[in-house]
Amino acid sequence: MTPEEMVSRLLxxxxxxxxxxxxxxxxxxxxPKGGVSLxxxxxxxxxxxxxxxxxxxxxxxxTSGCLVLGRHRKxxxxxxxxxxxxxxxxxYWAAVEGGPDTDEGQIELPLGRLDVTRGWWMxxxxxxxxxxxxxxxxxxxxxxxxxxxxxxxxxxxxxxxQLRVHCAEMGWPILGDAVYGTAPRQSGPMLHxxxxxxxxxxxxxxxxxxxxxxxxxxxxxxLAQCGWEQEEIILPRCASLREGENQFSKSSV
Length: 253
Description:
The protein is of the alpha+beta class. It has one domain: Pseudouridine synthase (2-Layer Sandwich). About 15% of the residues lie in helices and about 25% in strands. It contains four helices and twelve strands. The strands form two sheets. Strands 1, 2, 3, 4, 5, 6, 9, 10, 11 and 12 form a ten-stranded mixed sheet that branches.
C-alpha cells in the first residue's frame, strides 16, 4: 500500500483521533509470524506529528470498515478508556446465511477460548466471559438461490470474534466465514462483515463524532439482493489544525 493509498482511506481526522476505512484481507497489526500489516503503513498518517498514530482498538483481518487510531499517547489513553467503558457505539453490517425469524433481538451467549492450540478461535462457553450483541434485520434476499439476510449488529461487549461466533451459534453464520461458518478455507467468498459506523464521545460539551465507512465492493452484490441500494457517502471534513489546538471538525456523515 502506497502512502497515497493509505491517506485515501482516511474518513476522519482531528487533533486527537483518526478514523480510517480498513480494507478486508489485511491484519491491523504485526503478528508473531510476521507478514504485511496495516500498521506498517501508519507513517503516512502522521500529518506533522513526530510519531505515527497507534491502534485504539482492533478489527479482524477479514473485517472491513471503521478503524480508530489515536494520534499520540494521551489520545490513545483517552480512547482506550472509552472503548473499555463501552462508551463508543459500533454498528456492523453483515450478510448472513439464512437468518432470524423475527426482525430484531439480542444475543446473550458467553464466550471462551476454543482451546489453547487454536489461538484466538472462540466458542460459546456458559462459563466464559459475558458477550451481548443487539441485531436488527435490514433486508432479506428475494428470489436468490442462497437465502441471505442483511443484519445490523451492535456489539455491547467487545469479545474476540463475538459477532462471528454469535451469528454462527444462532444458526445464521456470516457469509464467507471459514472459521465459524460454512465457507471453504480457499476459493470461497470473502467475509461479509463490515464495521459500518462508529460514534465516539471524544470531547466534553461537544457533539459525538459519528463516522460511516462506505460498503466495500465485495459485499455490494449480496446486500443488493437484500435491498441495499447504491449509496453516496459524504465524508466528514478533516479538521484543519495546527498541532496543539484543541479544535475539531464535526463529522457530517
